[in-house]
Amino acid sequence: MLRFVLYDDKDRVVDVYHSREMFDELKSFDKQVEYLELENGNHQLEIEQNRLDTLNAFDKFLSQHLK
């Protein structure tokens, strides 16, 4: 199973530590995982560039893995 972890580094709902730990743990178990951490972002993806980066990353991820 493929995994995609997305996180905004200024999220006040969930600390960035949790997503970094999840990514590290998945990697330590040799799981296929991609990680995207958005700079200055928040839980609601309010920054337009972060929304675009997220959609582009999802598009790339899905294009690679849904064939």
Question: Key features?
Answer:
single chain; 2 strands; flat
Which helices and strands occur, and which strands form pairs?
Layout lengths: L2 E6 L7 H13 L4 E6 L9 H18 L2
Parallel strand pairs: 1-2
Can you put this structure into words, describing what you see?
By secondary structure, this protein is an alpha+beta fold. It has two helices and two strands, in the order βαβα. It has helices spanning 16-28, 48-65; strands at residues 3-8, 33-38. Strands 1-2 form a two-stranded parallel ribbon. Helix 1 (16-28) links the parallel strand 1 and strand 2 (33-38). The longest helix is centred in the C-terminal third of the chain and has 18 residues, at 48-65. The mean pLDDT is 90.
Physical arrangement of strands within the biggest beta sheet: 1-2
Question: Which structural category fits the helices and strands?
Answer: alpha+beta
User: What is the tally of beta strands?
Assistant: 2
Order of helices and strands: EHEH
- Work out the radius of gyration: 12 Å
| Percent range for β-strand residues | 15-25%
The number of helices is: 2
Residues in helix, %: 40-55%
Low-confidence stretches: none
Looking at the structure, what is the overall shape? flat
Largest sheet: 2 strands, parallel
Q: What distance lies between the first and last C-alpha atoms, to the nearest angstrom?
A: 14 Å
The pLDDT mean sits at 90
